[in-house]
Design a protein that fits this description.
mainly alpha; two-stranded antiparallel sheet
Length: about 70
Amino acid sequence: MRVTCFLCERVEEIDDNSLLAKRIRHRPLTPYLCPACHDRIAQKTLARRRQSQGGSKSTPRGQERS
C-alpha cells in the first residue's frame, strides 16, 4: 500500500497486511507519519514535557501569591 506522510509528503510503501494499513483503509482521514517525522515529533514532545515538569510553580486553588 502506498501512503504519503502528512508532514513531509514523502511517499512510502507499507505492507498491505499491517495494522497501520488496516487502520488507514478503514479510516481514510487518519494521517500517516513517516518514521522520521514521528520520531522528531516524539523527541520534541518529550523535551517539552520535561521542561514543563521541572519549573512549574503553581499555587493551590483559592490561594493567592503574596
